[in-house]
Request: fold
Amino acid sequence: MSDNQIGKKPPSAPRAATSEPAAWQENSDSSCHKDISLLFIGGMFEGASQEWVVANSKGNIQNAANVLQWNLIRGFSEHLGTRLHLLSSLFIGAFPSRFRRVIIPSARLDTPGRSGEQVGFLNLPMLKHISRARRLRKPQIQWLADSGQRSAVIAYSFTYSMLASLKAVKEKSPGTITCLIVPDLPEYMNLSGESSFLYSTVKRVVTKRLYKWLDEVDCFVLLTEQMAEYLRLEKPYVVVEGVSTVGMEARQYREPMDVATSTTILYSGG
Reply:
């Protein structure tokens, strides 16, 4: 995202939160997660599901987003254990230009030690987003019914299906904490893809609705501080620029690296 893009105003700035969820008011210390159940909604894949995605994809695969989601999930799992549940609606291209399958099947997530499911959907251009949101609704509402009074839902990516999921959560359970992870802004997604008049018009309308739906989000995880300035957030947020999967103990006892003879490669996306 370039500096001149950041300077533009979003279609509609979200309103400031008028009240905080009960869970925020009751838990101001760092131990508030101890009895909260968490639902993580994303587009991750692993194991057999990953092999299936690779075999059927045409063009780029969202490996960076997949890795980041699993790193976050592993961190949540360390704190929450069995109180973490996963829902995945695969981040893949649409049939027929970017994926070989029009029907995406439902399946259990291949996640040892964690409960989760992959939700199927109709993988057609534009229609896939509505299908994903509708297919996610039933399992997330069921999870809300089973999770008890203290629950939180985190959705990964500023997209229609993820915001629609958080909106559905708030409608069903207003006291549930909703959190959106924002790796990118909707108006700057898929800039190299479809560019027809119909697509551009639909994208503009949907993007405007997504910004309005931010009212249903209690807090945010951003990748840069500039995102907070662009979104003009007046709600709690945290900036996470990276995730380390190496624990403190492992780093403490790791053998020192010989900088003179070692090569380190950093990939920052793109």
Observations:
- The mean pLDDT is 83.
- The first strand starts at residue 37 and ends at 42.
- The first helix runs from residue 3 to 6.
- The beta strands are 37-42, 84-88, 103-104, 107-108, 115-118, 121-122, 151-156, 177-182, 219-222, 237-239.
